[in-house]
Specification:
- The structure is a single chain.
- By secondary structure, the chain is an alpha+beta fold.
- The protein folds into two domains: 91 residues, Ribosomal Protein L25, Chain P (Beta Barrel), CATH 2.40.240; 104 residues, RNA Polymerase Alpha Subunit, Chain A, domain 2.
- It contains three helices and 13 strands.
- The strands form three sheets. A six-stranded mixed barrel has the order 1-3-2-6-5-4. A four-stranded mixed β-sheet has the order 10-7-9-12, with no helix packed on it.
- A hairpin with a 2-residue loop joins strand 4 and strand 5.
Length: 207
């Protein structure tokens, strides 16, 4: 099995819409690699291999290797352009990274213990305000995902960005902008069934 964290690419000399179309007709994906104190380079990658790689969630929040004509560079995937009408990847953007310089990356949130949480046992439903969060850290500290444990969340409770438990060396970009950016991440809402149960309980008390 190929390494899902390594993209094999070849250099291409021509840029522009016409050149990109020619790359796609050949069954490949046009791409660009930029940043890292070096000139941008135009690339072409196998479409089938790209599709296989992008099936893995971790690829979007992981330091990757791009092998260009046999030489590897460390990158993160900064952009994926897709054809909404076809199962086709149109373009990729790779950003070079230095292992000694902080990067900003969107990392997915994994919500756990929803059904067994305090609120979940009462019929509550978790309403997710975010599915990922932008973090800054050194490449070596980049987490594959951030776990959001809902075990102690009751109906009416809301977890905010400051409630997230982050790995060492990882910070949330929005929180650098002030306390007013401490946005909600997930709230436990009462479902219709749980509201009806609460109403029934209240009516029984009054009897």
């Amino acid at each position: 099995m190929s390494n899902v964290f390594e993209f094999v690419a070849e250099s291409r000399a021509k840029s522009g819409t016409g050149a990109a179309r020619a790359v796609r007709r050949a069954g490949k994906v046009p791409a660009v690699i930029y940043g890292g104190h070096a000139e941008p380079r135009m690339l072409a990658l196998s479409h089938n291999e790209v599709v296989k790689h992008l099936e893995h969630e971790a690829v979007y929040s992981h330091v990757l290797d791009v092998s260009i004509d046999g030489k590897k560079e460390k990158v993160i995937l900064k952009g994926v352009q897709r054809n909404p009408a076809k199962f086709q990847i149109l373009h990729l953007d790779f950003l070079r990274v230095s292992m000694s310089e902080a990067i900003k990356v969107h990392v997915p949130l994994h919500f756990t213990n929803e059904s067994t949480s305090v609120g979940g046992k009462k019929g509550g439903i978790a309403a997710h305000s975010m599915v990922d969060v932008e973090v800054t850290c050194l490449p070596s500290a980049l987490p594959e995902f951030i776990e959001v444990d809902l075990a102690k969340v009751d109906i009416g409770d809301t977890l905010h960005l400051t409630d997230l438990v982050l790995p060492k060396g990882v910070e949330i970009v929005l929180l650098h902008q002030g306390s007013e950016h401490n946005l909600p991440v997930v709230s436990m809402m009462a479902s219709k069934a749980s509201k009806e149960d609460a109403a029934d309980d209240a009516s029984k008390v009054g009897e």
